[in-house]
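seq:
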Amino acid sequence: MPRIDYYFATVSPYTYLAGTRLEEVAAKHGAEIAYKPLDVIALFGRTGGTPPGQRHENHQVWRLQEMRRQAKKLGMPINLKPAHWPTNPAPSSYAVIAAIHDGSGDVGALVHGLCRACWAEECDIAQDDVIRDCLSAAGFDPALSDKGMLAGAEEYARNLEEAVAAGAFGAPFYVVGDERFWGQDRIADLDLHLAGDL
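struct:
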């Protein structure tokens, strides 16, 4: 069974725009997804990237245009300047980690629900009530938001180290063996790779 190491950030607009296409591709090929939430700003710092707010104005203008275009192509609502962004990604990431270990619901739906809450629903995904609602909607016990905080923090930090070692430098980032795919617009290439056509 192929394994996809999926490095993502719950506050990333491009993780949001990935939707559930990764899960669809994985199901098609019988692949396992290893969900690895991480601090994407720390990843930028470790791999030569620049946080969005510190980028040159030219890059910032392009970023907003690209987000709008990609969202329109995908038929997904998006608020280009959400009221609660940037926000602390750690609480939602710890909840995802707790959900992974719990295994009773749909992790992909949880990740997408958290990203959608940030980028389309004007919710602060650092807030416990928002996290609990997303957990519940994805089939998990909302009380998971209060469990395993220390273990979650340790795994969250470990995911960053693993991402750097695996060659990741942004989010979403998909790794299959030695093959690396950066961005939601490369899911089709990941699909072709898993099919043996790329």
